[in-house]
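Subject: Protein record for review, amino acid sequence with backbone structure tokens
Concerning: The relation between a protein's sequence and the shape of its backbone.
How to read it: Take the token row as a discrete description of the fold.
Enclosed: The protein record, placed directly beneath this head.
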Amino acid sequence: MIYSGKAITVSALENGIAELNFDLQGESVNKFNTLTTDELRRAGEALAAAGGIKGLLVTSAKDVFIVGADITEFGKNFNLSEAEIAEAVYATNQYFNAIEDLPFPSVTAINGYALGGGLEMALCTDYRVMSSSAKVGLPETRLGIIPGFGGTVRLPRLIGPDNAAEWIAAGKDQKAEAAMACGAVDAVVEPDLLREAALDLLQQCIDGKLDYAAKRAEKKAPLQLNDIEAMMSFETAKAVIAGQAGPHYPAPVSAIKTIQKAAKMERDEALREEAKTIAKLAKTEVAKNLVSLFLGDQALGKAAKQWASQSEDVKQAAVLGAGIMGGGIAYQSAYKGTPIVMKDINQAGIDLGLSEAAKLLSKLVERGRMTADKMAGVLNQITPTLSYDGFDAIDLVVEAVVENPKVKHAVLAEVEGKLAKDAILTSNTSTISIDYLAEPLQRPENFCGMHFFNPVHKMPLVEVIRGAKTSDAAVARTVNYALAMGKKPVVVKDCPGFLVNRILAPYMGAFMGMMRDGADFTKVDKVMEKFGWPMGPAYLCDVVGIDTGVHAGEVMTKGFPERMSRDFKTTSEILFEADRYGQKNGKGYYAYETDKKGRPKKVVDESVWELFAPHCEARRDFTDEETIDRVMIPLCLEAVRCLEEGIVASATDLDMALIYGIGFPPFRGGALHYIDDMGVAEFVAKADKYAELGPLYAPTDRLREMAGNGETFFSPEH
């Protein structure tokens, strides 16, 4: 044994070949944590000191090669100063350089995923052989940073700056065929031939049949581009990538600028530039929040799996109420592999639900992501019915009828009598109390909310709403089913609006207050879209449906009268009375035309101001800051209240629910991260500036206490 550690071993094989094997003890995957990088240094030193080695094979003992850096260490590392981060990154790169500079050829055998630092490790060796089932990629820009172990230096020199810019900026995984086509790997073989092929390639290097030294020298040298080629390549890439990334995500363009700046440099100087850029990005709120988002997603998934582990899988589901929502639920269930019965009271509803599922599947076929045979197979997993025949074999039912308490009471009581005693009954209600809906049920312990967000196939979040009598078993099976559907379940307590819609309600209420005070909704929309929301509040009202929004507002006003009641007629109520329901009938805040692709396109309809005039002050300008403050402060304060009241288990769950449920700008991290980034004391002071606007802007006593004590919702390392 040449070297033996807890993450890396180096052993001698036959014919003078050494094998450096990654196998991080106690983990299911390999990753570059502090232990692994330190052992890489030691392994490199041992290889350099050992005699008689003719070649190095780099492998993994896990099912994957290396999934990248240990992101749980980012928070601690990013708390260093910018200069300290740059120096630490550059120092770590010397361990990779030591492998690249060994006086004999090296080959990496890539099995499974080689992502981030995993691919960068493979790039340090002279050749790479890849399993046909493996994937490689540099996903760092999705965390607000750039590759830090030489990815911006070695990859452009291997596959060209254009291909490297696309790989790094997009941050996507690449299949073996794509990696081979552009030269990132040198061979692709079937998984069972991987080791044999890698050893064969290494032997060819040892025998002098392949000029590994020339290949290595090209990888360490400046990019082979003249000034005109470089200018055209990089300037074009920056323009395209800036348009794709948008103004809130600096990492993709920063990666291209780094490659450009280092184009005429040798390896070590180029690595200095990479380290400087990653250090600068690591100190941004964007990187901090995107890293927190990644870790939050992992925490969310871990909590969901703990619930799911307490339940058997749902083998047969059912949805009550076909239509668009029911069809979307049926599609998602069948597409992800759980057979589902779709029941309605009339054939028209069934036809609409099947049509919705077929439409979504047809789009996959058109895009080449599904075959027609597979589409037929998925549709066969949906059983349409007008009766309750066979419902005694259903494991879980999702009620998705109209949002009317009396109708839901009748349907839920009726279906409960058709189910087995251990079957779970859920309601896809967006606002109606779960405890109230449970009133007519004989087994309320088997009932909970399962709130999908529209459109079902696109929105990741599912709120699993626990009523006062809901059992752990009901929550567990519902969470299990949500996971099986490919969703992100968050368990919340029952209250008006539950979690996400409750937090959204003050945001919409604040927007209504701005409209009363003379705001121009088109300008408000532009400011909030620039802030990072996928759409502004007026456009959101139109997309959701003015009628739906008015109904939700009534529920929230009744639930929280002290904060959410109003003494004026809102602009949405005015539109509702004028039969302007938004996109669904072509007129709301905006009017809607059909674009060339048949999609609704919003246009300004000046006639709407005549409707608003009797109820709103004359139009006036609000500053961008005032616009943001007036709608965001109430949203954030309601988020604080939900956390304090235990509606959700943690600050992480709350922020993740907002990101996955209503598109809260991911780079801002969620409502509670937004407060932390501003500073709790500064946020409270800002809220107090708007005290005359009413209780929506009033901080809680606990938040004031946090401000006084310098507390935050998340630790600095989160």
Q: What stands out?
A: The mean pLDDT is 95.
